[in-house]
Amino acid sequence: MCMNECRFCECGRNSVYLSFRDNLLPPEVLLTLYCPHCRPQAALDRDTTLEDCGWVLEYDVKRAQAYFDLRGFKQRATPEFLFDEGYLSWQGLAPGDEAVNARLHRRLEPLVRQDYALYLQTLKTEWTAHVAGLKEAGWRKAQAT
Ligand SMILES: [Zn+2]
């Protein structure tokens, strides 16, 4: 079970859903979130920040490490580790994934009663195409799919 949290970026124009694997870290470990609009304000420090297609996540790495140590979790907290392993990263593969998924389900909903097999097939095909698009665009989590 993961808890979800919606977080606005620094300029407030965009928001994302975040995921917290095993609820190991509290939301405060993500100090600041920058969207492509407010990204120029971000101080890109490789020890504390991670960039993904124009978005920047700034982590309180020391605090994350303290939580890891407290739980006897023998990993070194780095922005890459926190993000790639899902301890504090996007819900889904990229910001907005939730909305895309919801729209897709809504659009295909009439098919559920007409032809369930076709519904499942179309859902799968369209989602696969979406993920391929994310991968091509360079989204970090999509690269692993
Ligand atoms: Zn912003």
- Main sheet? 3 strands, antiparallel
Structural class by secondary-structure content:
alpha+beta
Write down the overall geometry.
elongated
Give the helix tally.
Answer: 5
Order of helices and strands: EEEEEHHEHHH
Task: Please tell me how large the radius of gyration is.
Answer: 17 Å
Please characterize this protein's 3D structure:
It contains 5 helices and 6 strands. The chain has helices at 61-70, 79-84, 97-114, 116-137, 140-143; strands at 3-8, 15-20, 30-34, 49-52, 55-59, 89-90. It is elongated, with a radius of gyration of 17 Å. It folds into 2 domains: 3-90, no CATH class; 97-143, no CATH class. It is an alpha+beta fold. A 3-stranded antiparallel β-sheet has the order 1-2-6. The chain has a 3-stranded antiparallel β-sheet with strand order 3-5-4. The mean pLDDT is 94. Residues 9-11, 13-14, 34-35, 37-38 line the site of zinc ion (ZN). The site of zinc ion has 9 residues, from loops.
Attribute tags:
145 residues; 3-stranded antiparallel beta sheet; 2 domains; 6 strands; 5 helices; elongated; 41% helix; alpha+beta
Produce a short descriptive summary.
The chain is built from five helices and six strands.
List the helices and strands and how they pair.
Layout: E1 3-8, E2 15-20, E3 30-34, E4 49-52, E5 55-59, H1 61-70, H2 79-84, E6 89-90, H3 97-114, H4 116-137, H5 140-143
Bound molecules: zinc ion.
